Amino acid sequence: MIKAGIIGSTGYAGEELVRLLLGHKDAEIVWYGSRSYIDKKYADVYQNMFELVDAKCMDDNMQELAEKADVIFTATPQGLCASLVSEEILSKAKIIDLSADFRIKDVKTYEEWYKIEHKSPEFIPEAVYGLCEINREDVKKARLVANPGCYTTCSILTCYPLVKEGLINPDTIIVDAKSGTSGAGRGAKIDNLFCEVNENIKAYGVATHRHTPEIEEQLGYAAGREIRINFTPHLVPMNRGILVTAYASLVKDVSYEEVKAVYDAYYGKEKFVRVLEKDVCPQTKWVEGSNYVDVNFKIDPRTGRIIMMGALDNLVKGAAGQAVQNMNLMFGKKESEGLELVPMFP
User: Fold this and answer.
1) Per annotation, catalytic residue among 57, 132, 150, 154
2) CA distances from 112 to 118, 119, 122, 189 (A)
């Protein structure tokens, strides 16, 4: 039985971790961490956990938690995990960080985009970027995993095969992405009030969104060189979901069958990436509440470009589900354990 502790268990991603781990036959939650609700019953914070969780919220004492847990999930704002982690803690427990603290290998890039000083850069080199479908073998050996962001997971998995195989010019990639409001977290913000979001859609973080360097770095590894992309996120009035529509110039004429064969070569045996049938566009509704990513593409011979599409649930595959998937790999468990969730509809 894996003993798991969650720091930040009362945020949306943290609560989703609780939901998934409660259904995991090989895991037990031993610590419900929350700075905002210390000593408050977890089920009073999330009433859906009534009679399912009897524990009270605890603090974020990672040192004490490392004595009790085999794995620590940090579903916290940027900077907290980096300020708490130490060699002593990592010698006792594995860490899966859902923030961006260890996703970007260049410290200057992290500090430039996140506007904070990195408190433990010495651990960046060993941190494994936890995109299981690409870094599976490295995740298995890791003691510190940087869980990817929701926009980045969808964007990278959507474009990766064609970048890796050199079918597109990666410097021409434009990513247009949409997210439900849970992606902004549970904190009270004016921009997320019902009257601000309902009946509205807007772009934000234009040319400045923090997931941009993360996408560039990971797709750059696939391309074998540094790349630059345009990434524009949008907020849409729904609870969950990421929809990515990415555009890029093809480097040669290709047929549907050739491109489909590339996607199938990368994802045909993947449990959680579904390559859809011809002309079927991904929709967030078809992956909601699940760990699946749906991807597809459309060739536009008129412009010499290709449109790549992807959809996922930002709280599951985009956060907590991917974290559990990483945990399963790190502890030698069945990769899909606790994650075989049928998408909800309607």
Assistant:
1) 150
2) 10, 14, 18, 24
Rounded distance between C-alpha atoms, residue 5 and residue 2, angstroms: 10
Q: How far apart are CA 36 and CA 45, in angstroms?
A: 10
Domain end among 86, 111, 126: 126
How do 293-300 and 230-235 pair as beta strands?
unpaired
Domain annotation covers residue 343 = no
Burial of 310 (C-beta count, 10 Å sphere; 0-12/13-18/19+): buried
Mode of pairing for the β-strands spanning 242-249 and 230-235: unpaired
**For residues 3 and 336, what is the distance between their CA atoms, to the nearest angstrom?**
18
DSSP structure string for 110-162:
HHHHH-S--S-GGGTTT-EE--HHHHHHHHHH-SEEEPPPHHHHHHHHHHHHH
How many domains would you assign to the chain?
2
Give a three-class secondary structure readout of 31-81.
EEECCCCCCCEHHHHCHHHCCCCCCECECCCHHHHHHHCCEEEECCCCCHH
Which pTM does this prediction carry? 0.96
Residue 93 lies in a domain: yes
Do 176 and 244 form a contact (C-beta atoms < 8 A)? yes
Our CA angle for 152, 155, 157, nearest 5°, is 100
Q: Rounded to 5 degrees, what angle do the CA atoms 314, 317, 322 make?
A: 130
What does the alpha-carbon distance between residue 293 and residue 233 come to, in Å, rounded to a whole number? 18
Mean pLDDT, the chain cut into blocks of 10 residues (346 residues total): 98 98 98 96 98 97 97 97 97 98 97 97 98 98 97 98 98 98 87 92 96 98 98 97 98 98 98 98 98 98 98 98 98 98 96
**Catalytic residue at 81?**
no
Residue carrying the six token digits 């605890």: 58
Residues 205 and 291 in one domain: yes
Q: How far apart are CA 103 and CA 124, in angstroms?
A: 8
Strand-by-strand arrangement of the 94-97 sheet: 27-33, 2-7, 71-74, 94-97, 144-146, 128-129
